[in-house]
Amino acid sequence: MWTRGRNSDQLATRSSRFSLVHQYILRFNEGSGNKSAAIRRRSKTPGVMITQYAVTLPEGKSTPDFQCKPMPVAVKEGHFAIFKAVVTGDPKPDVSWRRAKGNLADKEKFQRKYDESTGEHILEIHEVSAEEADTYKCYAVNECGKAVCTTTLSIIDASTIPEDFRKLLKKSKSQTAGGDNDETFWDAMMNADKRDYESICSEYGIADLNMILKKLEEKRKQKGKSKQKDIITSYDNDTQKQDSLGKKNYIRNEGTVQHDTGIYIGDVEEANHHNRHLTLGDAEKDLLLTEFKLSNVDFVIKIQEIKAEENEDALFECVLTHPLPKITWMRKGILLEDGEKYNITVSDNKLIHRLLIKDCTKLDKGIYSAVAGIISCSAWLVVEDQRNPTGDAKKTIRKTAKAAGVQADLEKMAKEQQIKIQGEMEKILKAVKEKAEAEKLKGEILTSGDDCGGSDKTSKTQRKNTTNGTVTTFEDSAGMIEEGDLKEKKQTKGRVGCNIILERKNMKDGTLTTFEDCEVTREGEQMRAGDRKMEKQSIGPTEGEPFEDSQDPGHGSNVSNIRQDQEAEHDVTEFIDQCDDVVQQLNQLRGNKDCNKSARNKRKTNNADWKEQASDSNGQVSDDELNTEETKDSTDQGKYQQSLKQSKKSKHVANGKCVFPGEHGEGDETENVNHSANHTRRKRQGLLVTDPIIDPGVHFIWGLSDVDAILHESAELMCKLSRENCEGVWFRDGKQIYPDDNVSISMDGPIHKLVIMKCSEDNSGKYRFEADGRKTEAMLSIRDPPRFDPEDLSAFTRPLTIKVGHNAIYKLQFSGHKPIKVQWYKDGDELKDDNSTIIERSASHTRLLLSRCQRRDTGEIKIKIKNDHGFTEAVSQLIVLDKPSPPLGPAEVTESSALCIEFKWRPPKDDGGSPVTNYILERQQVGRNTWKKMGEIPGVPIYRDTDVDRGRKYYYRIWAVTSEGMSEVMETDEMQAGKFAFPGPPAPPKVVSAFNDCINISWSSPSSTGGSRLLGYILEKRKQGSNLWTCVNAPDEIIKEKRYAVRDVVEGLEYEFRVCAINLSGAGEFSNASEFVFARDPKKPPGKVTGLKVTETSYTNMVVTWTKPEDKPGIQDEAKGYFVEIRWADCTEWCRCNSSPIIMTSFNVKGLKSMDMYWVRVIAVNDGGEGTPEELPNYILAMPLPVRPRFTNNKMKSFMVVRAGNSVRITVNFEASPWPEITWLKDNVPVMKRVTISNSDGSSQLLIPTSERLDSGIYSVLVKNIVGQETFSTEVRVTDDPKPPGPVELEESVPGTVTVIWQPSPDEKRDDRLHYTVSKLESTKHTWTTVADRLFNNRFTVCNIMQGREYHFRVYAKNDMGISAPSESPTWGMEKKKEKMVITEPTKRDCDLRCAPTFIVPLKPQTATVGYECYMSCAVKGDPAARITWYRNHVSINTDTNYYVSNTCGVCSLLILHVGPKDVGEYKVVAENSLGRAECSTVLSVRE
Questions:
Q1: Taking a C-beta distance cutoff of 8 angstroms, is the pair 500, 479 a contact?
Q2: pLDDT tens profile 1377-1407
Q3: Can you give the pTM of this predicted structure?
Q4: What residue ranges in 699-742 does DSSP mark as E strands?
Q5: What span, in angstroms and rounded, lies between the C-alpha atoms of 890 and 887?
């Protein structure tokens, strides 16, 4: 998991590193299959955490952030509290509020508001009480991420406010003197739980809790920084050596080392911290290279979700692929440390890591993460309410909640992983040895000048950079190496010099690198040129100290140069080995495990020779250095990395500047090492020497670990070697340890143990184990935590039971390192001295007195004692006995029948500390005043009353009885005994399976049970073609379950079944019959369909056809139906198109989405199940075959006339595939915006809602796709009824003719299709006749005009829409007058139809049945209409609501809705009007 670098002062460096790190996260996630990675970062606003959902955000979008976060508030109880926050982000975030210990559901108390003018989100809390004192969180969320900040609400107690200024001044002085300046206060705050902060501050007299929390956070950050194991050691050479070797810095990264695999695991944050002086490019490279190493560790078993109850412990466990002594545990981005709340443990093999969360509360709920390098895993901790909140008297130890799985599985997986790692290490060692033996150095012997005897010698080593392929040569001159005791001066008669050329071929690109060294003097040879004596020199054995040469006047400068060159050669060689191991690790990560290590093996022999010159102050070679060199030659590059860790990390020397190498192949960049100008060298070639293979020897599988032991208890130190039967020696603070009565030393194969039986303070110190030149160290710390007296603890943990009003007393003795702080808790809340609580404390004794205890005091009593060495706690249960509370209602009726009433209720909410032994019941019948005692029943809250009357209603009263007394009464609602009610019919039975001799049937319960419980079922069967139902089960044996196996069947016959339910009233109705089923063995599923193909496609459907599968007896039976399934091309789930099997071998799949891709398959089914699906080889595109656009409606009009103001609607139908582009034009110009175009599947419509004359024109539609195009045009003429022509004049130019002349219509200019019509009316005729039509001028001559007759003319204007009103002409000619004819009409006589009422149809005698209707009617006539009155036994019944009387057109009727005996009698109808009266009567008889 990536964490934010601690040294990120410069914004540019932080932003660049941020981008580089998250680019690698993307690559890592892609490789591991994790496609999403949320990024957590802190806001510029302090205290705000931002979670970004994606690495790259869309342009213009941003995550939420708090421009102004809510500030902590401290108010008096009953006052008003308000929080305000201003958020930013695009899109606009949604803001919500939450609290830690409760919810904000009370809308009257918690009011959320938003001020648009200021942009503030406001949370108002009205009438604040102690319950609202809590931590509040504000969330701002949008689609890009979320931002979270917290604030607190504190309640100020009015009683604690000083009354005057003197008290306030005195209190502030006491706080300043002994408050936050006290170290014991900060130690207590660092180790305390969050819930104890307030009590600790009050104890030390500190009121400003918010300031203390800020300082506490700063101290924790400083403590985290100090725990990093990063040591930077640098030193400067003399001024005279800076031009040749420059400045040397050794950087040590104290990460974690896997001793069994040899893979160095660093820390990303430490790498950032160590490289803070590098350039930005080097920092990014080192960061990425370190990530490559960290990515080699992964989780075999990740932590899983845990559900725990309150006050329980929760245990997270995980298993790693490689052993790590420590991983990081986090919760909500906060680092968790081992302490009072959290217990972090590691198994002996360093593979199993555990996090124990003690005494879980609601605040501990959340996501917990385990981080190993750059790999992390997370899981939820869900804290549920305690199931037994009142406390269990038998509970003394908290339970531990774990994830699903068995502990043995973790141990088994860890053991398998350890064996796997050891096997991989052995394979690597074997490959290294084989490569080293197989490869030989290739070289050529070249001689020039004098022989080797008197010449200077130069050892040359070349190395080619792995990145750019350049050859870098390091030369050193006049170097001398001696073996043996450096105190003695060796002299020999001859000296042989040669050039040793070490070649190393990089596995990455095959390049060659050579290093040239100075003169090498073999053992037994002497120095040339005057046998100069070397003074005893002390080469600093301490890491990080500069190597100083002696002050020899004669030969000092030469010796100084020799040692300087040896030192440079040594550092260069270490750097080469480091780079080589980094390249080897990269190759292993890429899968190239067989790397060429021959050059490295050769160089290590030279390293051993060079190391022999490094001695202590007395000239002797130190054991630590020898052990270091032996460790270098051990198993693989991991052991060599361990030696690099001891000798620090080397660096390049280039032009006098320090350049730190990376941890991978980037560190292979080397530069020429320039020596002094006064140094002369002569190069001479010699034979190439092959280095021998060195046995890696014994090494540690795992080393010692630091141990914290308890005073007077046992402690164990243990390590494991790679070989058995290898003796070792134990040391404490440099002194050897021997077994005695208190110390036991044992060896079990490769495992060595040191056990201290009873630890004392003298046993603490630094322990070391050495075996075969290898050593491992660890610290043993002795602690004296507080401890309870065992007898007092045993008595305390037993539950204390008292009665109400009595006192509870707890006493405990304890011991441990002084001072010891004692705290008492009740149900998690610390107890303070008050009227009912008295706490006595001493150096070794404490006493708690709870006086006059009440039932509410029942709960958990906890004592906690702690000192500087630790803490311990004990838990007891206090049980206060009292009378129980009333039973809980309402009572629930479980059975109500004519014979009994059965009901149940809930036990008392509080049993008073004693179990309910009995219940006392009384019953009262509704309508009576007396209660009947039903007696006592056992303590089960259910009762069955069998002494009831059918249909009666009853009340019940219930008391709960315990050993402490009887509770208050609970009274139930009325309960009614049922009548005879039979159950309803069940659902039709279903056939589960069928065989030759058995058919399995199942059914469901009826929806209506008849008000009583069901006793069982009766099952009947019937053969196909028979009308006789036979009972399957015996009459006296009803079926209890809802399934039955029918065995009385005949093979090959077909059966159906039905079932009925039975309750206390009897058997109910039978269900409908089931489907017919054959008594035969199940069939085999059918095979695949053949010939599957798609015959037709469109944008919304496709037609699939196939051929039924073959029938192969014994293999696959005949198919009875088919299912068609489809799925989208980008979806993995199949969707079934038909809910029930189809019989046809073709199917029309509907509801497709246009231009989408679909996969299609068909499944054959029968009684044996579904066959194998047959799938089309290619996907189907939802579109028809390509079709050139074509208009399908032949009745489309090419000319339209529309009245102005009406709508114009032009619809064209076409077919085309693919979907065409549709364009509408008016007179070859695109239509105006007010024209609406609607396109649908296969049609297009043009709509002008309100047409005008300007809309006239030719409208064209162009339908075009990739196949072709088609055009259709329609002429639209928008017009209106024409206005009439002007005045009409008549002229006679020729006798017998008349010329009609008129003024043109006003519409003539706007309508080119306007014309005129002339009509004529003669005096001798009465009809108008048209004499001329379609006249486009304004005059017309009418012929055949007769003398003596009058003529009238009319002129009309016409167009495509209609005809106008006529324009009348004056009268033309004279008409003869005729006499008028007078006709006299006859007079009419009125008829009097009035008459008295008479009955046309009389009433008839009636006989009706009780409970039925009776209808009687008669007909009456009369003018005026008669008033009708009905009588029964001479009493009017017109207004009686029991009778329905009607009179429709003289038909009088009477309807009696429900005839009864009282309706018997004489019924009479009276009709009367102004002319008379009439009566009619009948008799109604009623029969039972």
A1: no
A2: 556 677 777 776 677 888 999 999 999 999 9
A3: 0.32
A4: 700-702, 707-710, 715-721, 729-732, 735-736
A5: 9
